[in-house]
Amino acid sequence: MADETAVRELVEKMTEERDKLLAQVEALSDAGAERASADAEGEAQWSAKEQCAHLAEMETAYRAWVERALAEENPDLRGVRGEPVAISLEEANRRPVADLTGQLRQQRERTLALIERLRPDDFERTASQPMFGTLTVLQWLRSYYRHDRMHQAQIAGREPDYQPRYASGSEPDQRRVRLQ
Prior knowledge:
The structure is a single chain. Helix content is 51%, strand content 4%. 31% of the residues are buried. The protein starts with a helix and ends in a 25-residue tail after the last helix. Helix 3 (48-71) runs parallel beside helix 4. The protein has helices spanning 4-26, 30-34, 48-71, 97-117, 137-155; strands at residues 126-129, 133-136. The protein has one domain (4-155): dinb family like domain (Four Helix Bundle (Hemerythrin (Met), subunit A), Up-down Bundle), CATH 1.20.120. A hairpin with a 3-residue loop joins strand 1 and strand 2.
């Protein structure tokens, strides 16, 4: 069962990694945040703006997964989606950096409010998702800051230290067609 120290460390890491990511993106000009690495693969091909939109979308998905785990006994998360975000991946490059970072801040506030409502035993509840397998609520929540860290590296043009463990063993292609 997650104790007070584990929850405090979770929130600190979530805040620290999101703050690093926001500072990194806010240091870019709008034009710089729209550039994508042509020689990268997978999500690393996205621009910083697209990565921000993706992180916001995934924040709502992870939160929906956690909420389902709290409501049901080890639910199958197939088809469970988060609520739509204001700025989607497809429209990210047409929006200012400030709008995208504002969206990330708003989504993280909602996630932190959810965490505040959790009881210690809630962190041990599980849910299963085809891409990641069966995880506890605490593991789903830890995914947030690891995901932020992975995209920080991609935005900087580095190979991420963190690589998610996919149930299939390889990363699914989550790219979408870039609108010009």
